[in-house]
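Researcher: Going back to the complex we discussed earlier. I've cleaned up the inputs and rechecked each line, so this should be the final set. Can you rerun the prediction on the complete assembly and write out the structure?
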Amino acid sequence: MTTVGILGGTGPAGRGVAIRLASAGYDVVLGSRDAGRAEKSAAGLRARGSGTLQGAANEGAASCDLVVIATPWDSAVLTVKDLRTQLADKTVISMVNALVREGRELVPLYPPRGSMAAQLAFALPRSTIVGAFHHLPADQMLDLDSGLDGDVVIFSDDDAARQRVADMVDEMPGLRAVIAGSMSLASAVEAFTAVCTSINIRHKVHSYVKLAGLKD
Amino acid sequence: MTTVGILGGTGPAGRGVAIRLASAGYDVVLGSRDAGRAEKSAAGLRARGSGTLQGAANEGAASCDLVVIATPWDSAVLTVKDLRTQLADKTVISMVNALVREGRELVPLYPPRGSMAAQLAFALPRSTIVGAFHHLPADQMLDLDSGLDGDVVIFSDDDAARQRVADMVDEMPGLRAVIAGSMSLASAVEAFTAVCTSINIRHKVHSYVKLAGLKD
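Model: Rerun complete. Updated structure for the full complex:
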């Protein structure tokens, strides 16, 4: 079975993806700068299904078949730079959003190349970058009984990698993959997370994107 | 009753908003550079409810109580500049998205001030700008029997104007208002239209945003 590593996987966003990947049968390695913390974090997750969950240093997570970047935005590039060799010739999924708090809102930051996915692509020229998992509410992702029914908007310049990630997402409970297109849409997908989270703060809810009008 | 003018109202997006405003009881004036075309366009719409629909030159639409900007993005600023006086001291709703076709996709353009709403606010310093109606599928808006059930994400730096627009949207059939926050979110809301339309082109659907997890 495919192994999936999650860099910065001990935060709520990474843990949410991890538990649903393991519940879909994947063997998941939560990575952290601190291997002990990752092991503890993985031990605290109870997946359902045949997949496994373990913790490791980020290096261990980076040696999996598929790697998800779930670090805070301002440490994402630094984290992957050290793992360039392990990540070469692999599909690397960015779920990173560059957001900053401004009063009651989270607002989008536009990094020099327009998106965090583009920043990561520049830092990892030998990897294939796919964007996914941006708009998901961490609490509902973590709770397998939350009734989550969300859309994962996916983009990449590589058709095959994009499709592979979409197929994986469709196996995860509570999620539907929607391929949007190329990296030209990266900034728009990432920035919309600011809209969802600002709505959540303002209305005291956990909203997420479910596109209406798609064929099932 | 409040009158609502729609500048550039003869395009599919403007007409879709017009028919649902009239169906909510508003008196709507479709504006166009060509008054004759606007009259013809208005005559072709059949609203349900007590509101009225008529066509006029953009000047006529701009003298309504509330004004919606529905022109193509590249003529929006030019159009409102000539109507600065009529639009002063009014709430002006921008539904404008700056998008360009790139192969099979529509991708977002970021104007110098980050969003079209900010460009319009700069061009109309005496008006109050509210962003709304960005992600709606024109065909389903126009067909009152389409079963449309979409969210209108609203932003503005003016709390009262934002709330007024939200109240109006909630009266329109098939739409729910969701106040996201300030103009800091304008680029993110506008650019996401590129994601919806690119998904529509790729998957041959008419998708739109419906946020899950909100309280009713």
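Model: Worth noting: Chain B touches chain A through 42 residues (CB under 8 Å).
Researcher: Good, that matches what I expected from the previous run.
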